[in-house]
Amino acid sequence: MGLFAFIKEAGEKLFGTGEAKAAATDADPAAGNAKAAEAIHNYIVALKLAPPDLGISFDGARSLVTVSGTAPDQATREKILLAAGNVAGVAEVENKLSVARAEPEAQFHTVVRGDTLSAIAKKFYGDANKYPAIFEANKPMLSHPDKIYPGQMLRIPPQG
Questions:
Q1: Is 48 exposed, middle or buried (0-12, 13-18, 19+ CB in 10 A)?
Q2: What is the reported pLDDT for 71?
Q3: Which domains does the chain have, with CATH numbers?
Q4: Which residues of the chain are under the pLDDT cut of 70?
Q5: Among residues 106, 157, 142, 155, which one has the least CA distance to residue 11?
Q6: Can you state the angle between helices 29-46 and 18-25, rounded to 10 degrees?
Q7: Would you state the pLDDT for residue 111?
C-alpha cells in the first residue's frame, strides 16, 4: 500500500493543546500514542473525510501514523493520507486504506518557499490558470488558494 514521507516540523498543530499535547510528553508512551491517534482521527472527521471504518494509530517513537479502512474513492483516500501527514510531529504515513471505487492516482507536490498554486499548476499542467483544479483537489485542507505553506504536501490530480 505504501509509506508516504512528510516534513515532521510542518503542518497542523494538533499536538499543541489539551490532551493532544499530553501525547507528546506523556510518561506512558502507549497512552500518548493513543491520544495522538485520537487527535488525528478527530481532525479527519472534522474535515468530513472519514469513512465509517477509519482506523488511525500513531507511533510517537517513529513519528508514524498508520491509516486503515475503506475510502469511497481514490481522491478521498489521498485526502485522508494528506490530512494525517500534514500534521506537525508526523514524519510518515503508512497507507493501509483500500478504495471502494478505483480511479487514477494523483501526483503529490511538497510546497517550497515561494510556491504558489499558479506556479505549481504551471509546473504540472503547463498552464498557471489551472490552479483551481489543485485548490479543489485539496479541499477541505485548504481554505483559500493563497494559504499554502512550505513543507505542506498537496494532491495534484490528473488533468481532466
A1: exposed
A2: 96
A3: 3-99 (no CATH), 107-156 (3.10.350.10)
A4: 1, 16-27, 160
A5: 142
A6: 140
A7: 95
Q: How far apart are CA 80 and CA 45, in angstroms?
A: 10
The amino acid occupying position 65 is: V
Q: Which helix (H) or strand (E) holds 3?
A: strand 3-5
Cell of 51: 469513512
For the chain, count helices (H), then strands (E).
5, 6
Residues in the chain: 160
**Positive or negative CA dihedral for 159, 119, 129, 136?**
positive
Amino acid at 26: D
Confidence (pLDDT) at 20: 46
Strands of 100-141, DSSP E:
107-110
Query: What's the farthest any 2 CA atoms get from each other in the chain?
Result: 51
Rounded Cα–Cα distance for residues 2 and 16 (Å)? 28
Residue 116 CB partners (closer than 8 Å, separation 6+) = 131, 146, 148
* Local structure of 159: helix, strand or coil: coil
CA 58 to chain centre: 14
| pTM of the predicted model as reported, rounded to 2 decimal places | 0.86
